Amino acid sequence: MNTHSRKPTNLSLDSVLLAEAKSLKVNLSRAAEEGVRAAVAAAKAEQWKAENASALKSSNSYVEKNGLPLDNFRQF
């Protein structure tokens, strides 16, 4: 269960989409929260990739030149 408090927020939504969601009895607050949660997760992932790009490039370069460090022990 979510123990975080909720805060009323105003949003502007496409009117056709809003009407369709209401007709289908979609819980708009929950749907918006899920969408924002997914957008935040995607933004955090992109931020992490950007912050760690040089380390990833370095690691990939090492593997290209030297192979995987424990490759000799792989059984597949």
Describe this structure in words.
With 76 residues, this protein is mostly helical. It is 62% helix and 0% strand. It has three helices and no strands. The protein has helices spanning 15-23, 28-51, 53-66. The longest helix is centred in the middle third of the chain and has 24 residues, at 28-51. The radius of gyration is 22 Å and the shape is elongated. The protein starts with 14 loop residues before the first helix and ends in a 10-residue tail after the last helix. The model has no long low-confidence stretch (mean pLDDT 93).
Task: Describe the secondary structure blueprint for this structure.
Layout: H1 15-23, H2 28-51, H3 53-66
The averaged pLDDT comes out at 93
**Class per helix and strand makeup:** mainly alpha
Rg over alpha carbons: 22 Å
Largest sheet: none
The end-to-end distance, rounded to whole angstroms, is 42 Å
The tally of helices reads 3
Strand tally: 0
Low-confidence stretches: none
Secondary structure: helix percent? 55-70%
Order of helices and strands: HHH
Strand content: under 5%
Overall, the morphology is: elongated
